[in-house]
């Protein structure tokens, strides 16, 4: 079998160091005319364009006015909630009861799950996201539907069946035992297939019994390289509820900790209302927070302390998420733009380089996938997005006054949406092309 070879050419931007650590030092590499060579989905060369390096018979996809970046990571999202994005008027617990549970109840139907999974992944690719990490629903069918579609597209992505054995409608509950058995079967079927990984997914402490959390911890320990995802300290009413349900726990994080659910590859959505003990414990354990700015503002949950997470003597690994359907956009530009505004409301600063680092290499490191993705360099998988910094009349006008690369990036994260995404490549294959609406996937 001949290797599949392809090439891209154009300006590129990629990070190699953490701009939250090395404030003031250069953490990125910008190359005005880059040649990226790809063999069987892996980057084999990334450097200044040199026609002598282009393999015979290969014509690079050329984007002279574009900006090539590593594909974006969306580390906390609920694909089944896409049909309820932008539902009006409630905070977390009421919003779950009123909008989320009735919608999630539809996913016993695998055809519906397939339809939404397909639309969801198309939307993520349109937004330039190449690695989503998603919750499914309590139904195993919702996981099969998602992974089938993700495998077809060749994505690096994670997902898991929601575990929920109390405080939810009857038709959305499993039991500690069935939840464990079904998750184990799904992990055996999907984890490590192609680029897929399984994520043990207790929804959040209030919807699981101690027995279920205990079995989730068992599953995580038994599995080889499985992930865990859940929600943590998102909303004040939720905090009070957790305290009532788990009176023996020191705080919210301790509920998960007592069942072995706090460690590397454990992803905690939100983490807005933490005490210093919880911050220190997350740091010590190597656990990961996923900051979900548009969701936190939409549900009125609070202002995440990104500075405590990342600019600190004991930083906590932090990734970014859209948290659709509480989030209001799958676009990383919206996520970054709202992260900036949350920092503003806290009297803090998020620079454009910090923001774009977080959406790429920073999130890849936070989810322990930076061996594979997050930057443009030989050996990494060729998940790439091509931006069009002048995609709209307003963007073009504003970019004409930009003086630095950092200005250009900040304009994109403030004004950008899916129109900015000219093309998205998954393992070297173009899976989205803005200007050729014909569906590539
Ligand atoms: N907490 C428990 N479930 C959910 C959910 O589906 N979305 C959000 N934002 N928070 C949650
Ligand atoms: Zn969520």
UniProtKB/TrEMBL annotation:
Pfam families given in the database record: Amidohydro_1 (PF01979)
Keyword NADP appears in the UniProt entry: no
GO biological process, any: guanine catabolic process
Keyword DNA damage assigned: no
Domain Amidohydrolase-related: 68-429
Cellular component terms per the entry's GO annotation: cytosol
Pathway(s) per entry: Purine metabolism; guanine degradation; xanthine from guanine: step 1/1
Enzyme Commission no: 3.5.4.3
Cofactor annotation comment: Binds 1 zinc ion per subunit.
GO molecular function: guanine deaminase activity; zinc ion binding
Cofactor(s) it depends on: Zn(2+)
Reactions catalysed according to its record: guanine + H2O + H(+) = xanthine + NH4(+)
UniProt enzyme class: hydrolase
Keywords for the protein's UniProt record, in alphabetical order: Hydrolase, Metal-binding, Zinc
InterPro entries, sorted: Amidohydro-rel, Guanine_deaminase, Metal-dep_hydrolase_composite, Metal_Hydrolase, Metallo-dep_hydrolases
Alphabetical list of SUPFAM superfamilies matching this protein: Composite domain of metallo-dependent hydrolases (SSF51338), Metallo-dependent hydrolases (SSF51556)
Organism domain of life: Bacteria
Family (UniProt): Belongs to the metallo-dependent hydrolases superfamily. ATZ/TRZ family.
Role description: Catalyzes the hydrolytic deamination of guanine, producing xanthine and ammonia.
Protein name: Guanine deaminase
Gene: guaD
């Amino acid at each position: 079998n001949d290797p599949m070879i392809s090439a891209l050419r154009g300006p590129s931007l990629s990070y190699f160091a953490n701009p939250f650590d090395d404030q003031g030092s250069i953490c990125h590499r910008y190359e005005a005319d880059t040649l990226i060579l790809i063999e069987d989905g892996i980057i084999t060369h990334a450097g200044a364009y040199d026609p002598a390096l282009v393999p015979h018979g290969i014509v690079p996809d050329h984007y002279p006015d574009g900006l090539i970046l590593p594909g974006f990571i969306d580390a906390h999202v609920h694909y089944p909630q896409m049909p309820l994005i932008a539902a009006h008027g409630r905070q977390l617990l009421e919003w779950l009861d009123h909008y989320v549970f009735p919608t999630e109840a539809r996913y016993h139907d695998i055809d519906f799950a397939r339809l939404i999974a397909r639309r969801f992944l198309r939307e993520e690719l349109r937004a330039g996201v190449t690695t989503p990490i998603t919750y499914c629903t309590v139904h195993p069918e919702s996981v099969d539907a998602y992974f089938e579609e993700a495998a077809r597209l060749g994505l690096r992505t994670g997902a898991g069946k929601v575990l929920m054995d109390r405080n939810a409608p009857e038709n959305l509950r499993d039991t500690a035992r069935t939840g464990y058995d079904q998750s184990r079967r799904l992990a055996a079927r999907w984890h490590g297939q192609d680029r897929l990984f399984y994520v043990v997914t207790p929804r959040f402490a209030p919807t699981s019994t101690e027995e279920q959390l205990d079995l989730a911890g068992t599953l995580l320990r038994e599995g080889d390289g499985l992930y865990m995802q859940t929600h943590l300290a998102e909303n004040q009413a939720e905090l009070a509820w957790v305290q009532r349900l788990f009176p023996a726990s020191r705080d919210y994080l301790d509920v998960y900790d007592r069942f072995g659910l706090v460690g590397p590859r454990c992803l905690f959505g939100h983490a807005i209302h933490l005490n210093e003990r919880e911050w220190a414990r997350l740091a010590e354990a190597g656990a990961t927070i996923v900051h979900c700015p548009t969701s936190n503002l939409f549900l009125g949950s609070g202002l995440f302390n990104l500075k405590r997470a990342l600019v600190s003597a004991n930083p906590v690994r932090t990734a970014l998420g859209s948290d659709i359907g509480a989030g209001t956009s799958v676009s990383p530009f919206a996520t970054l733009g709202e992260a900036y505004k949350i920092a503003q409301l806290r009297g803090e600063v998020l620079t454009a380089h910090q923001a774009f680092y977080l959406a790429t290499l920073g999130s890849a490191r936070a989810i322990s996938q930076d061996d594979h993705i997050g930057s443009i360099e030989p050996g990494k998988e060729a998940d790439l997005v091509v931006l069009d910094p002048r995609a709209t009349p307003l963007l073009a006008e504003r970019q004409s006054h930009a003086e630095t690369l950092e200005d250009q990036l900040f304009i994109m994260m403030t004004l950008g949406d899916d129109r900015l995404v000219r093309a998205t490549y998954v393992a070297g294959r173009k899976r989205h092309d803005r200007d050729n609406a014909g569906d590539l996937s």
